[in-house]
């Protein structure tokens, strides 16, 4: 069973390394980079989802299960309209859109706009702040943040234009219509204490207890087992 692992904003594929020792034997994981991350060439910016689909077509095979974390989940969902759908899609720490109304938690449009303004003034400092922010829901936030810094270093492995484009996608992507009638089975997973998700999104997902937005740091064995389990169940659904 092939799993294609897709990371989120400001974070390259190294985030998945913690799971490497925990995958059950039927799973063949492959973490791929979005354009502009790691060694993957960036797309011209601003860009459109069609250009992203063209670049990612060879990396997102239809005979696999895609696993999209955070912004990676939003993008993977949007790409269902532009690429042959996978056998299934697992959304980890991702809903139908990023911003919420704030009444049940999550990130509001005003908070994202403020974050974008801060990013324009100092991209690296803002990225470092985001690492601290997304670690807040873990049982030991300080340790989770230390792990992130150890994995990712002091600067993002993506250029500023790519990161700015990612923030624009967080602002604009809305997959509600697509998720209402998806072209493949979709399963949702979320940390029970994810600070970036509203409670309504967490309630719709299979919740990972004692985890926040980064369960690959705090609960790697549990996350690998749950992803394999949910992929297997999704593959058994009629298509």
TrEMBL record:
Domain AB hydrolase-1, chain residue ranges per copy: 3-225
Coiled-coil intervals: none
Pfam families, sorted: Abhydrolase_6
Name of protein: Pimeloyl-[acyl-carrier protein] methyl ester esterase
Source organism per UniProt: Vreelandella aquamarina
Native organism taxonomy: Bacteria, Pseudomonadati, Pseudomonadota, Gammaproteobacteria, Oceanospirillales
